[in-house]
Design brief:
By secondary structure, this protein is of the alpha/beta class. It has helices at 35-46, 61-70, 86-95, 115-128, 168-174, 186-191, 212-230, and strands at residues 6-12, 29-30, 33-34, 51-56, 78-81, 102-107, 130-136, 141-145, 148-152, 158-160, 164-167, 198-201.
Length: 231
Amino acid sequence: MKRMNQYALIVAGGTGKRMGMEVPKQFVPVAGKPVIMHTIRAFYEYFQDIQIILTIRSHDVSYWKKLCLQYDFRIEHTVVKGGKTRFQSVKNGLLAIQEEGYIAIHDAVRPLVENKLITESFRLAMLHGAAVPVIPVNDTIREITGNFSTIIDRSHLQIVQTPQTFHTSLIREAYRQEYHSSFTDDAAVAEATGLKVHYFPGQINNIKITRREDLLFVDALLRVGEGAEGR
């Protein structure tokens, strides 16, 4: 793959409230270090010259710096203060990029992202301008209203993941529009401007940590992976 300017914008604005934790989930230790450090390392191992931008809530910046000292974390990255919404945090991160290239926007709490998914995301973004991984919905889905329920045809449903990767000029332009409540991810922001997004098969275990049980799952898989590398 031709090496153009490549960026990873890692969004870490979670508060941990939904999990009932005092520490935001991106800072919770799994497999020996905070979740977010595993996520950053995944992109660094993909390409050591990738430019990593981290958006963090302003009052978490000093805490993050302490964690970097505590865990001797030395992977180079730029810290940008996030906003009140994910939309604003991504917009702030994009403003830190001066040159054109391709950018992968990724949730800090998806630390299991694999090298091959990152590679494919950049490759397809270079072909299509915008590439987003998805996985099929395998469970039965019901819409429940009061005492009534209706089965929803899952054959057309997909679960959207990150990294969502774009040419920098395209996604920067998309983030110039006004925020709308329907903007739950970067693909939605891009498509609102008429940009066609290429969807491709994602990674089953590339889960977003949302529950305490997810931390146990991620911890176990990371330890297995580290054990395999050590053999």
